[in-house]
Structure formats: structure tokens, C-alpha cells
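User: Please run a holo structure prediction.
Assistant: Happy to. Please share the sequence and the ligand.
User: Here you go; the ligand is flavin mononucleotide.
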Amino acid sequence: MTVYEAIRTRRSIRRYTEEPLTDQQVKTLLEAAMATPSACDCRPWEFVVVRDKKNLEELAACGKYTGMAKDAGAVIVICATPERQNEICPGYFPQDCGAVAMNIWLQATDLGLGAVWCGVYPGEELANRIAKCVGTPEGVIPFGLICVGHPAEKPEPRDRYEEQRVHKERW
Ligand SMILES: Cc1cc2nc3c(=O)[nH]c(=O)nc-3n(C[C@H](O)[C@H](O)[C@H](O)COP(=O)(O)O)c2cc1C
């Protein structure tokens, strides 16, 4: 699959078969995550990979919109580590971690897997629940969950291009 195809066919997949992910698939997703560019190359991130059914159920119960996590083959919890940002580019971690989320999501699409990003940051309540669930230390912010599995649904690609949102030279 080309990048062109991955970007255009990616959808949120919230239903998964019971087929487990291989260790290699999970490694490939994490490699894609860590290949993401970041401001000043600070790489303000770490990852918690959750694959155990009981732990997935606990994660799923953390939020109103995270229920699909219980049936995922894996949930990658993207954790922001703001203390890794240097003095030149403080405050960029949400952009860096957002880019990470998209790299994982597109990589999952390329592998024929289905994924969905569950936003956590900047929601403090949800972040606290996830932090407790996966045991992140003080100063580490659960940024988002990427739930991944073998897809049990196949929504059609959508064309969302809107010419009227493009401003030429000036707004
Ligand atoms: C930052 C962000 C947070 C999201 N949070 C959730 C979520 O908590 N639960 C969920 O089911 N989907 C979540 N989504 C998925 C969006 O609902 C989905 O991307 C959007 O409806 C467009 O559909 P598509 O991904 O199939 O193109 C999130 C997506 C983004 C980018």
C-alpha cells in the first residue's frame, strides 16, 4: 500500500476479530511511532503497550468513548514526557504526540489492521484514570490511546476535500 492509499483509506475501526496481533506487528507500529519527527528532535514520548485482556478491559472502562479497547488486540498508550522538551521548544509535545498517533494509525492501515485514536489529552479526568490504570509516573501525561486489532468492520473511504476551505495567497 502506498502512503497515498493509506491516508485515503484509513478510517476509525472500533470492532475487531479475536485474532491476536503478532509481536512483529506491534514492533512495526512502535517503530513507526518512534520514526515521527518532533520539535527540536526532543521526542517527548514513551509508550505503554497493553495486550492482556483484563488490562484492556480496565482501560476500556476508563472513559465514555474508550469501550472498544476491551476487544482490541493491543492498545498503545502514547505517553507525553514534557520534561524531554528543551528550552528552545517548550510546549510542543501535543503536536509531537499527535503526529505520533497518526504515524501509528497509518502504519496500522498499511499492515491491514484496524485502529482508532482515543483522545485523552487535554482531558485531565480521563488522563488521571488512564495514568492510574497503566501506572505512569508523575510528570508523564497519557496523551492518547491507539486501539488496534484485526478489523471486524470495513467502513468505506471518505472524500473530505472541500475546495472552499482553501485560501489562495491570503484568506
Ligand atoms: C484527537 C482524536 C480523538 C479521538 N477520540 C476518539 C474517542 O475517544 N473515541 C472514538 O471512538 N473515536 C475517537 N476519535 C476518532 C474520530 O471520531 C474519527 O477520527 C472521526 O469521526 C473521523 O472518522 P474516521 O477516523 O473514520 O475518518 C478521535 C480522533 C481524533 C483525531
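The pocket of flavin mononucleotide is lined by residues 11-12, 14, 65-66, 116-119 (CB under 6 Å).
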